[in-house]
Amino acid sequence: MRIRDLAVPLLAGMLVCAGTALAAEPHNPAARAGPGGIGVRLLSPPAVAGDPLGRSYVVERLAPGKSVRRRIEIRNSTLSSAAVSVYPAAADLRRGAFAFADGRSQNELSRWTSLDREVLRLRPGGATFETVTIRVPKDASPGVRYAVIWAEISAPAAAVGSVKLVNRVGIRMYISVGPGGAPRSNFAIGPLSAGRTASGAPLVVANVRNNGGRTLEIGGNLTLVHGPAGLRAGPFPVTLGATLAPGGSEPVSVRLDRRLPQGPWRARLRLGSGLVQREAAATITFPQVAPAGSHHRTLAILLVVLLAVAAALLLLSRRSRQLSAAPHRRARVRR
């Protein structure tokens, strides 16, 4: 390959790299909810005392062949009468997030679940109660299942072939199948480390692992003590961004104010899920903040260097062509 064949692709690559580095991130505005609607809430007490999930969701431990009933309330807070469909549907836990299946898709748990009525007619501001029954088959295998109980209203399509508007709210279901009593809740916090975000804000990061037998929602706080000149900061609220299934792990990160001194600090992370409380501590120092504009200066220096290399390659290519043409000129003069 000749030297000039390398110079033009190099210049093109430099322009692509520069354009990528200076591209801005898109902005996604938050959606706004309208006034009034259909609401659903759990009325029965949690099966296990101190379980934060059980206060809002159906959380049960059932042996094969057993059943359980839970009461829910469905409320219409709109100014119109509503026909509300209530039904169970499939769900799953994916990468720590509770994921709902499309439409009325079914799985094992939703097929085990039934309600007394399929359609509820509610006047404006009215409410009614419904019983949810879960029957686990005798041949059910052990494990955790997920589903959701939906309350749904829909508006008729404005014209034939147009889109039908459907709104629904639901209550999650976490059902553990297995013999014996409720599985033990437990989780562990990994080592704490200090870092910075892309914008330079201080960051404390740790990994949390669910090594118990129940799905957990975890929250807590971070406190910094024994800082420079005896400073203390916090507590800062911490919420794990994912629901942890048994055996799952997720990072927890706490973003702090840019004005916080570099350190060293003594960091204490306290997390809990119901009655299970854990704590981790470490001495940390945040990395130094890069000087303002250093990224752009580095990019400019890189571009200058690449331009110089490309120019040198072009010069060498021209000089090579000149040297290769010289013997031919001398040969024609001799004849």
Give a nutshell description of this structure.
The chain has 335 residues and is an alpha+beta fold.
Q: CATH topology of the largest domain, anyone?
A: Immunoglobulin-like
Known CATH architecture of the largest domain: Sandwich
User: Regarding CATH, which class of the largest domain?
Assistant: Mainly Beta
What is the C-alpha radius of gyration, as a whole number of Å?
32 Å
Distance between the amino and carboxyl termini: 33 Å
Q: State the major sheet.
A: 6 strands, mixed
What is the total tally of β strands?
Answer: 18
Task: Please count the helical segments.
Answer: 3
Percent in strands: 35-45%
Order of helices and strands: HEEEEEHEEEEEEEEEEEEEH
Residue ranges: pLDDT <50 for 5 or more in a row?
1-34
> Could you tell me the mean pLDDT?
77
Integer tally of domains: 2
Structural class: alpha+beta
Helix percent reads 10-25%
- Gross geometry: extended
How would you portray this structure in words?
The longest helix is centred in the C-terminal third of the chain and has 41 residues, at about 295-335. It is built from 3 helices and 18 strands. It has helices spanning about 5-20, 110, 295-335; strands at about 40, 60, 65-75, 80-95, 95-100, 115, 120, 125-135, 145-155, 165-175, 190, 195, 200-210, 220-225, 235-240, 250-255, 265-275, 275-285. The strands form 4 sheets. Strands 2, 4, 5, 7, 9 and 10 form a 6-stranded mixed β-sheet that branches. A 4-stranded antiparallel β-sheet has the order 1-3-8-6. It has 2 domains: about 40-175, Immunoglobulins (Immunoglobulin-like, Sandwich); about 190-285, Immunoglobulin-like, CATH 2.60.40.10. With about 325 residues, the chain is an alpha+beta fold. Helices cover about 20% and strands about 40% of the residues. Helix 1 (about 5-20) runs antiparallel to helix 3. It starts with a helix and ends with a helix.
